[in-house]
Specification:
Structural class: alpha/beta
Distance between the termini: 63 Å
Strand content: 5-15%
CATH topology of the largest domain: Rossmann fold
Radius of gyration: 37 Å
CATH superfamily of the largest domain: P-loop containing nucleotide triphosphate hydrolases
Shape: flat
Number of strands: 10
Helix content: 40-55%
Strand order of the largest sheet: 2-3-4-1-5
Length: about 575
């Protein structure tokens, strides 16, 4: 007799043999026992989880001459014909090659004819999601009210592509991925029946490579048996499957945290020399970081599906690692992985990634920097204030009251003035030089008619120009102005509101710069008062999406990087 592959030879012949899908098999068995069988089912889930196998079992049991406790007898003529794939009452259709409306029209004609031997004529349509929209619509009426002798079973790996009108006419069952431990038990049982000696570490490696798919795991076992004859060991499986040994990831990680980028780059060259795929290598390294973080948080390596020796290594390494660093490394790797997989020069990107991870300690955490800045700004004696900042930080006793000029005081047009030409040479002093001279000096002024005529709408309309003016001088202040709200304007005083102490004090210290930029934009001198208060959304001029752009400008001006 010719050889039969493992996935076909050990295909389940009863519902109890389908592992990991008890929520489906129990439901179907009860429906058969209670004679409450539906007319259409959709089996969805990832590959190799038992969709088509369960569909064949259901087809067998509904046509079985001697069903036993909801299972087929596997001995009657109908069961044998279905098992051997030659039954005229069970038709398996490939949805990928029969996806058009003409194929569905033929199916609608065929369903009129009764079964030849059994009670039901069963249509199993695999990859059902590939049927076209027009073909779906042509099937609707037949699917909703089929002949009593018809049973539809649809299998798909992409349920989201099936039309809602189709889904509403079917009973849906979601097949789960098979747990690794159950896959290992199944593979061990098959190996024993085949007379193959294999250790648990090798079975674990096969099950992990199968990634929750029974069919994939059985196919890998078939390949390993063909290569290794009757004695299978862990090292031979690594060579056959091209799987990277997990010990490599520990060595790469230790090189990175030791800031030895040259060693990390050497591992990349070694991977290429041995023919490994660098995308798969980076993906596996991401899983390694994830496992290391889980052990760090969980405190025990027993949660991992790996060998006992590797569990001890994970536990030993995780104890000495910083949780925040692991999160940052995992985030960086996962962000770069899509770029690497699409790149035409993978080696350069992978090397850049490993260099970046090796020098991760040199990067500055923005949250930590902001916290330090905030502490320095609120701790007495940590920062010297200029006289102008001290004066600007004091809010006026009555900001909305109109100041009364002294009779002897001259009439000024601005708090920062260009003096009249009264020198012996009668040469006017440039305004720019006078601004520098008066940066630490605030001059009280009467409010002119021109200043008092400025409206709140005028300030709001040109607020972005003010922020752009401040940005080259004080990028951080420009960022704070983006989040500030303009509460009101009274007699030439622009009253700004912010919601935290740090922003309030920073803007108060920078009041003079803001006043200069207001004058540059509006052409008249305005006073600035900053206070801590609740800022309503209508008072905030620059919205969140614009704030993000301003933040990026601040980061670029500081020559920094957001991690």
């Amino acid at each position: 007799m010719s050889h039969q592959v493992i996935s076909l030879k050990y295909r389940p012949q009863q519902f109890e043999d389908v592992i990991g899908q008890e929520h489906i098999t129990v439901t179907l068995k009860n429906a058969i026992k209670k004679n409450r069988l539906g007319h259409a089912y959709i089996f969805s889930g990832s590959r190799g989880t038992g969709k088509t196998t369960t569909a064949r079992l259901l087809a067998k049991v509904v046509n079985c001459e001697n069903p036993q406790n909801g299972n087929p007898c596997n001995e009657c003529i109908s069961c044998r014909e279905i098992t051997e794939g030659r039954s005229l009452d069970v038709l398996e259709i490939d949805g990928a090659s029969n996806r058009g409306i003409d194929s569905i029209r033929d199916l609608r004609e065929q369903v009129k004819y009764p079964p030849t031997r059994g009670k039901y004529k069963v249509y199993i349509i695999d990859e059902f999601h590939q049927i076209t929209k027009d073909a779906f619509n042509a099937l609707l009426k037949t699917l909703e009210e089929p002949p009593k002798h018809i049973l539809f079973i649809f299998a798909t790996t992409e349920l989201q592509k099936v039309l809602p009108t189709i889904l509403s006419r079917c009973q849906r069952f979601e097949f789960k991925r098979i747990p690794i431990l159950q896959v290992i038990d199944l593979l061990r049982d098959i190996a024993q029946k085949e007379g193959i000696a294999i250790d648990d570490d090798s079975l674990l490696l096969i099950a992990k490579k199968g990634d929750g798919s029974i069919r994939d795991s059985e196919s890998i076992l078939e390949q390993v048996i063909a290569f290794s004859n009757d004695d299978i060991n862990y090292e031979s499986i690594l060579n056959i499957l091209g799987v990277i040994k997990e010990d490599i990831f520990f060595e790469v990680y230790n090189a990175m945290i030791s800031r030895k980028a040259d060693q990390a780059l050497q591992y990349i060259d070694d991977m290429l020399m041995h023919g490994y795929d660098l995308v798969e290598f980076v993906s596996a390294f991401s899983i390694f970081l994830r496992d290391l973080y889980i052990v760090k948080v969980h405190g025990s390596p027993d949660i991992l599906n790996t060998t006992e020796n590797l569990r001890k290594e994970y536990h030993s390494l995780a104890q000495s690692q910083d949780e925040r660093t692991l999160i940052r490394m995992l985030s960086i790797v996962n962000d770069e992985l899509p770029k690497i997989s699409r790149s035409g020069n993978i080696k350069i990107l992978v090397e850049s990634l490993f260099i970046k991870l090796s020098h991760l300690q040199d990067f500055v955490d923005l949250d930590r920097v902001l916290q330090q800045v905030k502490q320095k700004g609120t701790t007495p004696g940590t920062r010297l204030q200029s006289p102008a900042a001290s004066i600007a930080s004091k809010p006026p006793s009555n900001p909305v009251a109109k100041p009364t000029p002294s009779p002897a005081a001259p009439s000024y047009q601005s708090s920062i003035l260009t003096p009249k030409a009264n020198t012996s040479a009668d040469v006017p002093v440039p305004a720019q030089q006078e601004v520098k001279k008066n940066e630490n000096k605030v001059i009280e002024k009467p409010v002119s008619e021109e200043v008092s005529s400025v409206k709140l709408e005028d300030i709001k309309a040109k607020w972005q120009e003010v922020v752009d003016c401040v940005q080259p001088k004080k990028p951080a202040i420009a960022g704070l102005l983006c989040r500030a709200g303009i509460l009101q304007i009274q007699d030439g005083t622009v009253i700004l509101g912010v919601e935290d102490d740090y922003s309030c004090k920073s803007l108060q210290r920078a009041a003079q710069i803001i006043r200069i930029c207001l004058k540059d934009v509006h052409g008249i001198s305005l006073s600035v008062h900053v206070e801590k208060s609740k800022v309503l959304e209508e008072q905030r001029i620059i919205k969140n999406k614009d704030i993000d752009k301003a933040t990026q400008q601040v980061i670029q001006s500081l020559d920094g990087e957001l991690i």
